[in-house]
């Protein structure tokens, strides 16, 4: 069994609230909430059996379930499960994994994908599943093309060799039990990270890089809106053409 976890409980502190006060994952992108774009891609993939959507409150779960059922096909919506998360992304992913672990059938593999990355494709999901099965621990990423410098107090300290530096994306994940145990270890030892690849690394697993996509961007700041809207328009034109 292959499952996915989509953490959508965050407050989006770097994103100025718009669209009637909704946070970035619920921002309407060409009429559809941002999280629906990737959620529908995951649910449409033939190898994904379940998607755990992690939300802020029980009330939000009920409200979003109605929204999901209005945007997804009946078959896709049946794959979506709901649970509540914590104050951080790490806590929310752990809540999602724990909820999956209580299901009658625990997943063998799991993908974790940011709700604010709307342009996930079927091909990226397929590559992620292949990597999860073959390596047990993976993350998507793209080589950094800009020159990277280390700064302290506004002054350049070092210019880094970008040849071995990657910008990390999602999905991330691998073997379900590995990731669940790694999250539990991090929780018990009070270790905080920004992604699941780091948690797997901390737990001693070798995490491989899978080629991501330049279009697999994250809606983080207000200025990202126009770029996402432009990409969304191109995608919808291509799919309808």
Write a short abstract of this structure.
The chain contains eight helices and eleven strands.
Describe this structure in words.
The protein is an alpha/beta fold. It has one domain (2-240): Spore Coat Polysaccharide Biosynthesis Protein SpsA, Chain A, CATH 3.90.550. The protein is built from 8 helices and 11 strands. The strands form 3 sheets. A 7-stranded mixed beta sheet has the order 5-4-1-6-10-7-11, with helices on both faces. A two-stranded antiparallel sheet has the order 2-3.
Task: List the defining traits of the structure above.
Spore Coat Polysaccharide Biosynthesis Protein SpsA, Chain A; 8 helices; seven-stranded mixed β-sheet; 241 residues; 24% strand; two-stranded antiparallel ribbon; globular; alpha/beta
What is the CA-based Rg, rounded? 18 Å
Any idea how many domains?
1
Query: What is the fold named in CATH at topology level?
Result: Spore Coat Polysaccharide Biosynthesis Protein SpsA, Chain A
- The quaternary organization reads as single chain
The overall strand count is: 11
CATH homology group = Spore Coat Polysaccharide Biosynthesis Protein SpsA, Chain A
Q: Helix proportion of residues, in percent?
A: 25-40%
Walk me through the topology.
Blueprint: E1 2-7, E2 28-29, E3 32-33, H1 34-44, E4 50-55, H2 58-71, H3 74-77, E5 80-84, H4 89-101, E6 109-112, H5 122-135, E7 137-143, E8 148-152, E9 155-160, E10 166-175, H6 176-188, H7 196-202, E11 208-211, H8 224-240
Parallel strand pairs: 1-4, 1-6, 4-5, 7-11
Antiparallel strand pairs: 2-3, 6-10, 7-10, 8-9
């Amino acid at each position: 069994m292959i499952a996915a976890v989509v953490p959508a409980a965050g407050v989006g502190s770097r994103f100025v609230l718009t669209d009637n006060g909704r946070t970035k994952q619920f921002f309407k992108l060409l009429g559809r909430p941002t999280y629906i774009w990737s959620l529908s891609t995951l649910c449409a993939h033939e190898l994904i059996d379940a998607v755990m959507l992690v939300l802020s409150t029980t009330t939000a779960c009920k409200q979003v379930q109605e929204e999901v059922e209005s945007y997804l096909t009946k078959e896709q919506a049946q794959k979506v499960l709901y649970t509540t998360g914590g104050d951080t992304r790490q806590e929310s992913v752990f809540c999602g994994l724990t909820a999956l672990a209580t299901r009658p059938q625990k997943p063998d593999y799991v993908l974790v994908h940011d709700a604010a990355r709307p342009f996930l494709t079927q091909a990226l999901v397929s590559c992620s599943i292949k990597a999860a099965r073959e390596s047990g621990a993976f993350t998507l990423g793209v080589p950094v093309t800009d020159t990277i410098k280390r700064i302290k107090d506004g002054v350049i300290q070092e210019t880094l060799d970008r040849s071995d530096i990657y910008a990390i994306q999602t999905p991330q994940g691998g073997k379900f039990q590995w990731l669940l145990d790694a999250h539990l270890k991090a929780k018990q030892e009070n270790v905080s990270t920004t992604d699941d690849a780091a948690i797997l690394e901390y737990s001693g697993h070798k995490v491989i890089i899978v080629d991501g996509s330049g279009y697999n961007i994250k809606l983080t700041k207000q200025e990202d809106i126009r770029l996402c809207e432009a990409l969304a328009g191109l995608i919808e034109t291509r799919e309808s053409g």
